[in-house]
Amino acid sequence: MHGAPYIQAEVDQPRNAKHKRLVDAVVWQMDHMHEAPALIVACYDYDEPVSGGEIYRKAGSVWPGIQNLLLMARSLGLGAAPTTLALRDQALVRTALDLPETFAALCMIPVGYPSGRFGPVVRKPTASIMRFDRWSE
Ligand SMILES: Cc1cc2nc3c(=O)[nH]c(=O)nc-3n(C[C@H](O)[C@H](O)[C@H](O)COP(=O)(O)O)c2cc1C
Hints:
Number of domains: 2
Strand order of the largest sheet: 1-3-2
Bound molecules: flavin mononucleotide
CATH class of the largest domain: Alpha Beta
CATH architecture of the largest domain: 3-Layer(aba) Sandwich
Oligomer: single chain
């Protein structure tokens, strides 16, 4: 059993080999999170207490900031990845970080020095993921 029971079903029964690699990476990340030199937690002040899906619906401006952080980390040769799994229990996170009750933590970004391959990333060709006007195969 890993620290996060909500992914236990996927650990026990990955859908295929690719999914298993992904689940293995998520579990590795969870087990080693405390080893990252820095854990940056992106928070938002909602001006009132919020919970559940509201947390993600109302704080869209946080994500472009996180993207900028990821780009800057990469440009400095640092590894960084957005994660949310450890933030599922907001009450616990609020207590751990001593956040005011109108705050929620949206994303935790471990930052560190890459230990493996850190070359250019592969992007799918735009034409294979975009459609014009409406969906078509
Ligand atoms: C919003 C969001 C939340 C994520 N949460 C997690 C997470 O909790 N744990 C995790 O291992 N990966 C999480 N990921 C995936 C990683 O950030 C990363 O994108 C993935 O490991 C692929 O990394 P790579 O593209 O550098 O290979 C999340 C990604 C996004 C966009």
